[in-house]
Each structure stands twice: as structure tokens, then as C-alpha cells.
Amino acid sequence: MADIVKMKSRRESSSDEDSGRLAKKPRTVHPLTYKSVRIITQGDIDSLYPLIVAYIETPSLADSITDFAIDMDTWPCNIVGSGFGDSNPEVSPHPVEDQLHAAVESYVRDMGLGDGALQIMLPALEWKKRQLRDGVQESRGERARHEKDFATSASAILLALCKNITTLYLGSLGWIESPFQLYMLLSGMNRIPQPGLRNVTRVEAIAGATGSNSEREHAWVSFQKHFNYICRLPALESVVLDGFADKSCVNPHTLPQSASSIKKISIHHADMSSRVIGKLLAVPKHLEELSLSLSKLRLFFGGPSQIFPRTVGEYLSRHRETLRVLDLDMDISNCGCHGYDSESDSDREEGSRHRPNPVSSLVRGLEQQPKPRAPSPSGSSDEAWLLSPSLPVEVNLEHGNIVGSFGDYKSMTHLSIGIKTLLGPTQDGKLAEHPPCRLIDALPPSLEYLRLYGYERGENADIDEHVNEFMEKREERLPLLKEVKGVDGRVEPESSMYKGQDDSTWQRPKRDFGWVKA
User: Fold this and answer.
1) Domain enclosing residue 459, as ranges
2) What is the pLDDT of residue 198?
3) Which of 204-213, 237-246, 393-402, 418-427 has the lowest average pLDDT?
4) How many domains does the chain have?
5) Which end of the chain is more exposed for a tag (fewer CB within 10 A), N or C?
6) In terms of domains, do 227 and 269 share one?
7) Are residues 90 and 204 in the same domain?
8) Residue 140 has what DSSP assignment?
9) The three-state (H, E, C) secondary structure of 42-69, written as one string
10) Looking at 95-99, 346-350, 400-404, 442-446, which range is the least confident one?
11) Is residue 12 part of a domain?
């Protein structure tokens, strides 16, 4: 009997060990299962075709992708004189069967981008198939044109296949209309049968961060153009821009008003006009956080943009019910502009005079075709979102050349701001003119944290008077205020730390947006 018990015990022990070994056996992961993908180098472009084929054949492989990075400025086909060379692709390209290629073409037709896009995408895919099978003899210029059409088409297809992307890293998207731009725009507008990017919560602009710009120069982009592609994405909450100068004057866009779910905007080391800032601030329905620093990097051409604090303040006031955190670094003493945008309602004027259509000819071509569209989550007209002129801005003349009062803001708990942005520019150790309200009156009752940039006691008697009054009345008027910085010691804003052409200028950090396995 004892022997039987021992044998049973050994069998149970052996069974437990086998179960443990089975439990510890690593799960087999498909080699094309990624968490992050990028389309920045020629190798990335060469990886697109086999990746798309695999994802169309097995759609679940694309479900693990959450991060998507693209920068067209770094593509060899967009760089004059650049060779294609050995690309070292992440996914090895190989000839594809006709049946699988036909499946890719069928998927592209079902995307619903219209005949204009199909006339670019289908020939581009056919060119890639021939290149992989037999090679294509063509000039460098012809190769660049075909590569560009293929890369923009394949990027759009991959974006459509990846349903679970939460973070988009967008560099330059090119200045020529492309299927990629079209897909992003129509997805946000719900103008296609199965719009993508439904789960994107964060967009970061990365132009210049991949090595295409000097680290001490601005990357030139159109802020409005970027916003036009992303602002209607239904889950979008956060937008980050760093190290940019605005090119919107070259290609202005009319943006939708109060139509976006964006809650947080962060803009740093930037050069942009207050008019553009105003347009961006008018896009969110309910903005909760804004961080804005207009530091100057080296300018490729021209001088710095004009900043009128009043314009920024008027657009900010649209969010007085919801704005919780505001970090406003605008060095108005250096901008040379102490007034307001006489065309701060320029969107309205553009709409009434010209009514510009900001969508591309590809979209206008699509409008001629009866295409199915997904229902708009808001129930409102998507065309109205896109084409409606901006709401007029009420210019409060008593605000003069300051950002205005935050005294009626209902939710603000954290405020970081230049003292001159609140009280106005200085002259000969005094305020150039009396502000319309006292410092203590310009602060919201809900404030818990205050940081004043650029103040030093003794430099300006008028400002000292405002600060002294604030310190005397803070407990009574601001009972929730727990922390104050910039009164006992000077706090320099970001914009004053990087000036000139020397080594003190801010350097854009290089970033590696690599392929990451899931």
C-alpha cells in the first residue's frame, strides 16, 4: 500500500512539473507583429509592400500596432540628388503572387477614396509589383516619382489597416496632394465607408526631429495644415508641437470651429503669429490645458512672427469654463508689437470674401461621385465643419496690449505667465500704460498654483505695487492658492533662455522612431 502511495505521489509530482514546463513555454509571436512602425527611411518604404500583403491576408497581425511615425522630408524620393542605395528594410520584400496582389487592389478600392486617388494608388502598386518581380529600368527622376506615389499610397493603406493606433508622430506630409493626406482628411470627416484613426488620442509633430533639419533651426511647417488633418479625429485629446516655425501664410487653411475633442495643446520653441495661435485655439470644443512658449531658434528667412497678446487672450476666453492649466510664455517686450491683430477675425473675412476650400482637388473630385460615408459621431454636417468660416472674435478694446483678465475663468488651477503679458510692456522703469485691472483682479478665484515669469523686485515700481497688493490680498481673494513662484526670486521663461546664434541656442533632440516588436 505504501508503495502504491509513493508511485501515485511521483506521478502527481511529474505531472505538476510537466504542467509547469508547459506554462513556462514562451508564446510564439508572429515575426510581423509590431507595436510601433515608422515610414521615415528608404528601408521603411521598402518594408511597406510585404507588410501590407501580410496584414491584408491576416488582418489581426495589425491589431498590435499602437504607434505610427511618418516624415516625408527624409524620404530619398523627396531629396534632390539623393540616391536610393541599400535600404536595409525591416521587412524583407519579395515577389508576391497575383492572387495576393489582387487582394491588395480590392482593399484599396474598398477604401472609398475616389477615382482620383485610385488613379495614383493602383498604378503605384502595380509598379511596385513589377519592381519586385523583374526589376524596372528607369531614370532616377522616374524612380523618385514612382517611389513617391507608392510610398504615399502604401502609407495610407497601412494606416487604414492599423485599427488600434493611439499615437501618431507626424513629420512633413509633403506639399503635393497625396493619398495619405486624403485618407487622413476623409477619415476625420467621416467621408469614407470605414474611416480609420478612431482610437488616436495623441498627435505629436516631429518635423525636424528625424535629422532633416539643423538642430538649431526651426522646422518649417503649416500648423493649420497639420491641424486640418487631425482636428476631427473623434478620440484625439492631446497635440504636441516642438521647434517649429509657421508656414501657414504660404498655404492658409480654414479650420473648423469648436469641432474637436482636443483637450491639451503643447507648443514649445515655436515661432508663430498670434493670428495662427488664435485659429488653433478656436478648434477645440473644450480646451483644458495649454502650454505655449514662443522661443526663438535660428530663422531660415525673415524675422520673428508678430505676437499680439490681446488676440491670444480673446481666443483663450472661449475656454474660460474649462481651461484648467495655462502656461503662457510670450516675450512681448521683444516682439515690437503692442497692439492687437486688426484682422483677428480674419477667418470670418476669408469665409465671406473668398470662401476658400481647404480640401485638395482629390477631395473635390470625390465630391462628384456618390460615395457611401460613415455617420458623423456629432450628427452635424462634416462639410459645415470644414468650410464654415471662423466665428468672429469680439475685440475688447479695454484690454489694450495685454492678454486680458482671467478673473472670470471657472476651472483654472495652474497659471504660469509673464508679468508683462498680464500687465503690459514697460518703459523707463514704469508700465508704459496703466492696465485695465489690478494683478489681483486678473487672477481666477480657483487658482492653486501661480508662476510669474520675468519679474524681479525693484526693477519696476509700478509692477512692484501690483505684486505687493497681490501678496497682501491673496489669502482673502485666492483662498485655494497654495504655491507662488517668481515673486521672491526671478523665474526666467523658456523664451529668454535661448537667444542668438551661439551654443546657448536650444538644440532639438534627435529622436529614434524605430520599429518595435509587440
Assistant:
1) 405-426+438-496
2) 97
3) 393-402
4) 2
5) N
6) yes
7) yes
8) H
9) HHHHHHHHHHHHHHHHCHHHHHHCCEEE
10) 346-350
11) no
